[in-house]
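Please go through the sequence line and token line underneath and see whether the fold suits the sequence. See right below:
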Amino acid sequence: MLNRKPLPTCVRLALITAPVLMLAGCQLPPPTPDTPPQPVTINCDVPTFTPLAGTTDSEEQGGIRIFVTPGPYSCVPSSKTTRAAVDPSLGDYITRPPATNPQQPPVFVEDTQTPTLLAAPDRLVFSITIKNNLPRVFRGSGTVVMYNIGGKNQNVDQSNFSELNNLIVPPQTEAQVTIYGPPLAQIDPQQKLALYLYDVVTKTDAAGNVTQKQNFEWDYKYTLTAKTQQGMVTKSRHWILG
């Protein structure tokens, strides 16, 4: 809620005398112009994944090769607006709109719009490519995805892995899906981040029954990299109805 300040004495007098001045042919001051845009440097932090020893971009077990690629991430422009009640000048006051509610007169405000950058997507995301070198169809159903960050397993809704669970890859072909993880805001930098794919079917018999499952693992050092660009802060002053 905006705090309404009492009108300055000079403005209250202007309200009374303005009609007289106008009749006398006096020129009243114009409204206060908006403040010119001000340049500002803005930034956002995007995740960087550095593979740890033993981790490569792909891993193969039992005829199934899985490629993993983090991201990609980018900085998306956004903005935030703040509003504060300010004193109108004489020129501003003569443009005041009529009150629609006597108990809530119009309020003169200044809006400040500040540019920001947001990391996108705003959560962990990995592209998973599965190449099926088996003589039979590969099905992603039953695969369990788990993230371990800083030595702690993360609780992630299984809907984040729906593409993988619904995946069907014919023999000697490949397919790509996307899986998601916790929000970036919940992850502290400078930690070990592990991605596990458990119970991946790597062998079936002639009847299609599962005869072998394997676990896959990728380990990274999770850090943040700052990205910067220029933006403009803008301010505008105007009346709003109370």
The longest strand covers residues 210-240. Confidence is low (pLDDT under 50) at residues 20-24. The radius of gyration is 31 Å. The helical segments are 9-23, 90-93, 162-165.
